[in-house]
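Progress note, project year one: complex with fe (ii) ion.
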Amino acid sequence: MVIKNIDAATVAKKFLVRGYNIDPKAAELLCKSGLFSDDIVDKICCVANGGFIIEKSVVEEFLRNLANPKPKPEPKPKPEVEKKINEVKASNSSLKVIKDITGKSSCQGSVEDFLMYFNSRLEKLTKIIRSRVNTTPIAYAGKVKGNVSVAGLVNEVYERGDRCYIRLEDNTGMITCVATGKNAEIARELLGDEVIGVTGVIKGSSLYANRIIFPDIPINGNGEKKKDFYMVFLSDTHFGSKEFLEREWKMFINWLNGEVGGKKSQELAEKVKYIIIAGDIVDGIGVYPGQEDDLAIKDIYGQYEFAASHLEEIPKHIKVIVSPGNHDAVRQAEPQPAFDGEIRDLFPKNVEHVGNPAYVDIEGVKVLIYHGRSIDDIISKIPRLSYDEPQKVMEEILKRRHLSPIYGGRTPLAPEKEDYLVIEDVPDVFHCGHIHTYGTGFYRGVFMVNSSTWQAQTDFQKKVNLNPMPGNVAVYRPGGEVVRLRFYGE
Ligand SMILES: [Fe+2]
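Model obtained:
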């Protein structure tokens, strides 16, 4: 509904409650247009494209387009090759890759790339926070009387006595947030470089927090999706390592083929339709000092041939989804693309290759696959977390809606123009590996699984006190039960 005779201050307020600041000249322009409505405010916020200040030029262009609407471009048909990558339908399985860096990387590692990367992170996560609270750009927070909410990237956290100080920045400025009591406890667990919201009251130049808001996921996730098939989660097979557990792998394959276990176990195996492998398919070459002593196959191509021959043993009606990890032959910086063609060609036809991370849709079940290198960084920052309960670390990742929040830790990040590591869409299943331990759990309706390994403890792992839990397999029916199978130590 058009609102006549509105003044610039009221227009500015309408934008402010939506988390935007409007240039006074732009507000004036809207008043004079005689077209002002709440609907127009929403539309202008959309075309602001993530910027927090609505410039006069944005309003001018919006009004111009309103007078002379541009014809909508015809949707371009997707190139055949893209269609082939994005949608694979083999037998009666259905897999659609929703998000994956493969074939889309464009970063050069320049300063501009890093700026764009962190801007993308800030915009995507601020948008999620804004869907729950109205935020004000940091530069304008001081002008708001009473409670004000801001959202920004955590630049620094430090303590003085029992208080915690958070330096928070967005693309308009930086503010110090003061956290006490329960909020100080939350602030102590901030990782740095994540995006949070803070609600509080301005005193002097600081914001005294009464609430710290994580982007988080909705209480009930996406709601329950009941399916009649099972997914099997594997990772860290480390084919090519001397410690690869050949006997245990064979037992797993025998189970998949219905050759071991009782009737119940066989019925379970019969209903397995998908196997997802979250990285470290092979042991790789030169990943850590002295690794050559731990290798049974010292040639990377030979390691993948060995891996492919083992995946060949999986029944062909099962779709296998393979994502790389830090031991694999792709770039180390995340997001990692899928294996290149030469390696992909070694694998059987029922294997689909995706990047790390990859967000896939399996018959309507949204699965987020991430190798999990950032788990090391997060455990080193939050003392209450440990390698024995990987699902608790995964919960922190979901809460922050970012797979690897810490920049400059053990996880190298590639500054892509878009931050692929932001968890934009809420998954139904979140699958990690990397730390060679096993853990499952649910967080706000999302099934989390860290899927163990097929490598026994190496000398290197002994030295760094890493105790793996090999041969543990999670079998999950979406919307139903989780079964833990143990093939090691039986
Ligand atoms: Fe691994």
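Confidence is low (pLDDT under 50) at residues 72-90.
The chain has three domains: 8-67, 107-215, 230-486.
No further modelling is planned for this target in the current period.
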